[in-house]
């Protein structure tokens, strides 16, 4: 296998296809082989879709030969988190009792990527039920604990575990993940890749497993911020099949927007209770950011973001999975603690849910006023590097607490992007997170691209 080919950007692979240095079939074969040979090392793959991928690759090559060009994703392989429906291919939601679940339609994101000429090579592993039953350790998927390619004994993060691992290991150029409360940002940080969580409603969720109807978001994970922007061009937009999706223009790179000097905000005390290496890498990243922007410290509001989010999430997942819990299938899940995790939420009172929604409206206005002062607000993506799979999460990360920025931004449904910004304990990656106002992904992408143009962390990859 051509090792260098495995870690090229989307644009570089597209250039090679159009210059006929490689064919779409050869490119698909390369990544299919890596998925089959390397993906299992990290418990990252559920289904390799070889037959479909080669069919799509042949069609892409034929069109390119006929000078029919669907855009930068034409002929580019990718993987999808296994909560996105794919017609005739199992969609397991990471759960043992659903291993044979098959839908007869494609999720809108899958359809849009197919229309853009992308080649689906795999359904990727995830934490069972996207972590909705309250897992507390890494072994929470029937495919086994997700592993970061940077270490054979450390977690890849959840719930988009396979999406993070396969991109980091050079098994796919990009992958689709989803986030309710950290499920793109965490694996992006632990696996050392770039992950973009779009604004709520920016990307259709039709055909995706619903964990929380008012919190779920779908977004790309890839090598660079530029790659994420390219993928977003294909998947963003209104979808009549998803009433929560919005008709807001998205174009990358943005037209008529040129940032010469960014304004960044940093919550006071954001690195007071994080691992030492996470703090050092964050401060080094700020030095890079100061080359093309200003950095200002501010006080982050002390408000019940976490309580509001957990109440809303618990109530909505209780409704979404009421039948699953009542059927007893929950007892067939992998992690012992999740086998009873769906019962307590059935007892949440409607008045508490409604109160949490009302509180969210107030908190969201408060957060938006704060975000409106900056192009992006910054924080470490995670307070630690990836925990060892032998430890539960509280045992490893319990002493480390950052701000509520990640929770608050998920509650508000605003966009965020995570970038590799160095390495810490045990040689594992650390992440830098940019958070922006709703529907201002263009500002985050512009800032992230500028950061990656002035640093080379994103070009480093694990020795796989």
Structure, briefly:
By secondary structure, the chain is an alpha/beta fold. 34% of the residues lie in helices and 14% in strands.
Q: What's the structural domain tally?
A: 1
**Secondary-structure arrangement, i.e. CATH architecture:** Alpha-Beta Complex
Task: Describe the strand arrangement of the main beta sheet, using strand numbers.
Answer: 1-3-2-4-6-5-10-11-9-7-8
So how many helices?
A: 14
Most strands sheet? 11 strands, mixed
CATH homologous superfamily label: Amidase signature (AS) domain
What class would the helix/strand composition place it in?
Answer: alpha/beta
CA-based shape: globular
The average pLDDT score comes to 95
Question: Uncertain segments of ≥5 residues (pLDDT<50)?
Answer: none
Strand content: 5-15%
Spatial separation of the terminal alpha carbons: 11 Å
Could you say what the CATH topology is called?
Amidase signature (AS) enzymes
Task: Tell me how many strands there are.
Answer: 11
- Indicate the percent of residues in helices: 25-40%
Radius of gyration: 21 Å
CATH class: Alpha Beta
The ordered H/E elements are: HHEHEHEHEHEEHEHEHHHEHHEEH
């Amino acid at each position: 296998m051509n090792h260098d080919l495995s870690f090229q950007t989307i644009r570089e692979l597209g250039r090679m296809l159009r210059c006929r240095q490689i064919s779409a079939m050869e490119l698909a074969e390369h990544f299919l082989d890596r998925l089959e040979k390397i993906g299992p090392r990290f418990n990252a793959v559920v289904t390799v879709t070889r037959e479909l991928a080669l069919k799509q690759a042949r069609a892409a090559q034929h069109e390119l030969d006929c000078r029919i060009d669907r855009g930068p994703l034409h002929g580019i392989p990718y993987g999808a988190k296994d909560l996105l429906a794919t017609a005739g291919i199992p969609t397991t939601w990471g759960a043992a009792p659903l291993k044979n679940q098959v839908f007869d339609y494609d999720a809108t994101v899958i359809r849009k990527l197919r229309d853009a000429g992308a080649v689906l090579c795999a359904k990727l592993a995830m934490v069972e039920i996207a972590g909705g039953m309250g897992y507390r350790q890494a072994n929470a998927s029937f495919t086994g604990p997700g592993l970061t390619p940077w270490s054979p004994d450390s977690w890849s993060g959840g719930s988009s575990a396979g999406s993070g691992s396969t991109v980091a290991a050079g098994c796919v150029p990009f992958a689709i993940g989803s986030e309710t409360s950290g499920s793109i940002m965490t694996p992006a940080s632990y696996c050392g890749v770039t992950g973009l969580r779009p604004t709520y409603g920016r990307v259709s969720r039709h055909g995706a497993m619903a964990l929380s109807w008012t919190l779920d978001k779908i977004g790309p994970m890839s090598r660079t911020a530029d790659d994420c922007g390219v993928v977003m061009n294909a998947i963003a937009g209104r979808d009549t099949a998803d009433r929560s999706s919005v008709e807001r223009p998205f174009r990358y790179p943005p037209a008529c927007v040129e940032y010469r000097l960014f304004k960044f905000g940093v919550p006071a005390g954001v690195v007071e209770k994080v691992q030492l290496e996470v703090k050092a890498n964050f401060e080094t990243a700020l030095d890079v950011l100061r080359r093309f922007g200003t950095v200002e410290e501010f006080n982050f509001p002390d408000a019940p973001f976490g309580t509001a989010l957990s109440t809303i999430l618990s109530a909505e997942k209780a409704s979404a999975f009421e039948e699953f819990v009542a059927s007893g299938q929950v007892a067939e899940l992998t992690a012992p603690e999740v086998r009873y995790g769906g019962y307590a939420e059935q007892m949440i009172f409607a008045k508490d849910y409604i109160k949490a929604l009302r509180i969210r409206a107030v908190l969201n206005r408060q957060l938006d006023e704060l975000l409106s002062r900056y192009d992006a607000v910054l924080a470490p993506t995670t307070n630690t590097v990836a925990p060892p799979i032998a430890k539960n999460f509280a045992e490893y990360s319990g002493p480390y607490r950052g701000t509520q920025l990640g929770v608050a931004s998920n509650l508000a449904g605003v966009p965020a992007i995570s970038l590799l910004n160095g390495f810490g304990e045990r040689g594992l990656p650390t992440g830098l997170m940019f958070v922006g106002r709703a529907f201002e992904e263009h500002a985050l992408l512009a800032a992230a691209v500028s950061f990656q143009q002035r640093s080379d962390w994103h070009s480093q990859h694990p020795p796989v």
